[in-house]
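chain and backbone:
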Amino acid sequence: MFRGRFERTIDSKGRVSIPAEFREILAEEYDDRLILTNFDRCIVAFPYKEWEIFEEKVSNSLSMFKRETKSFQRFFISGASECPIDRLGRILIPPTLRNWAQLERDVVFAGMQKRFEIWRKERFQEEIQRSAIEFEAMGDLLASLGF
């Protein structure tokens, strides 16, 4: 499971080093391919195997005739790019995805269990502040789940 937050720097070609903790998980449980796509105000990265599971669920669950499904597929699925991990543990983030997430230099990798996100550092800090407020309001929900 991917967890934790790690700061990295993207080079001028759009390459970024995956945190060692994430590379270990990828090496032990997956292969050297990631699928990156648009998400919220960031990029979400799936190990290839997890992406296949996700796509199967999508294709079996959503009607292609619904407007929401088409919007989801046009944004999320069509935005997906396969990004191999090089021998130095880096990925090349395609320009379209870098532009979407406004990734220029300083980024944050955020573990999200079976996937991880790549954020522009300033946007991530804003998101964490917003999420902290929402987290406080989730006390009743968490209590109802037994936590």
Remarks:
- The chain has six helices and eight strands.
- The longest strand covers residues 33-39.
- The chain has one domain: 5-121.
- Helices lie at 20-29, 48-61, 67-77, 95-101, 121-137, 139-144.
